[in-house]
């Protein structure tokens, strides 16, 4: 599998789980209607786990432009690949949004609340204050990317050079460090914690593709009582996560 295809698939999986749990909780006549915030945060965490675990051995399992930019800014990923990764992640987010709509099509028809439907595809603040909303997204994404950077660079430090060792040689065999695909589990738990602790003000996008791709799907898909896609707010879950990722990478390099 090509890494760009992997990022499309991984991000689509994220949105199928994440957008799907929101649809289950907020749409009318579903089994999970009214399940609440705890259910939503767990659904998103499982989405992160499955998305990263499934494709991490192929592409690194970024499934998030902020993670891609943060890794590149920290010197752990090639900047030349960033645009294609971001494009793939956005496409994956769009496709995931379409799948959620297909799965809940009858329930979309049974729900008239326009804001509820938009919440399945994109984030929005409880109190619309753009500087405060931006700061919340910066903080949440900083926590995420800072954790990802240390998971990505797991290993021992060379006493002389101070560089992280990716492997050591034992009896002529190179032995690597790190959790491999299982690094998806601690990352998912970090996302769960961010949702529980910092998700209240804005819905914790912390991922530009998670918001932009499905928001485009919302604008295109044909369903009744759709309402506007709130493009006036759409820049916040793009700019905030990127700034948070850059700050995390800067601190990582400083330390």
TrEMBL record:
The chain crosses the membrane at residues 6-27, 34-55, 61-77, 84-104, 134-153, 174-198, 232-252. PROSITE patterns: MIP. Keywords: Membrane, Transmembrane, Transmembrane helix, Transport. It is found in: Membrane. Its main location: membrane. Pfam families: MIP. GO terms for cellular component: plasma membrane. GO terms for molecular function: glycerol channel activity. Coiled coil: none annotated. It is a multi-pass membrane protein. The keyword Chloroplast does not apply. Belongs to the MIP/aquaporin (TC 1.A.8) family. This is MIP family channel protein. The lineage of its organism: Archaea, Methanobacteriati, Methanobacteriota, Stenosarchaea group, Halobacteria.
């Amino acid at each position: 599998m090509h890494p760009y295809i992997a990022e499309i698939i991984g991000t689509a999986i994220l949105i199928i789980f994440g957008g799907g749990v929101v649809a289950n909780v907020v749409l009318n006549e579903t089994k999970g209607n009214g399940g609440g915030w705890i259910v939503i945060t767990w659904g998103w965490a499982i989405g992160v786990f499955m998305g990263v675990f499934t494709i991490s051995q192929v592409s690194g399992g970024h499934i998030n432009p902020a993670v891609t930019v943060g890794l590149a800014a920290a010197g752990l990923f090639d900047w030349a690949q960033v645009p294609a990764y971001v494009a793939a992640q956005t496409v994956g987010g769009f496709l995931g949004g379409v799948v959620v709509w297909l799965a809940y099509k009858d329930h979309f028809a049974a729900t008239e609340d326009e804001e509820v439907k938009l919440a399945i595809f994109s984030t929005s603040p409880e109190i619309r204050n753009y500087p405060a909303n931006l700061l919340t997204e910066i903080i949440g994404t900083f926590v995420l990317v800072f954790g990802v950077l240390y998971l990505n660079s797991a290993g021992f430090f060379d006493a002389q050079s101070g560089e992280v060792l990716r492997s050591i040689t034992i009896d002529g065999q190179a032995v690597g460090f790190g959790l491999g695909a299982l690094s998806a589990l601690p990352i998912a738990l970090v996302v769960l914690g961010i949702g529980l602790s910092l998700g209240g003000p804005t819905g914790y996008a912390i991922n530009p593709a998670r918001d932009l791709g499905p928001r485009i799907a919302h604008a295109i898909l044909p369903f009744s009582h759709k309402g506007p896609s709130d493009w006036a707010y759409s820049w916040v879950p793009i700019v905030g996560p990127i700034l948070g990722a850059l700050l995390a990478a800067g601190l990582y390099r400083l330390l």
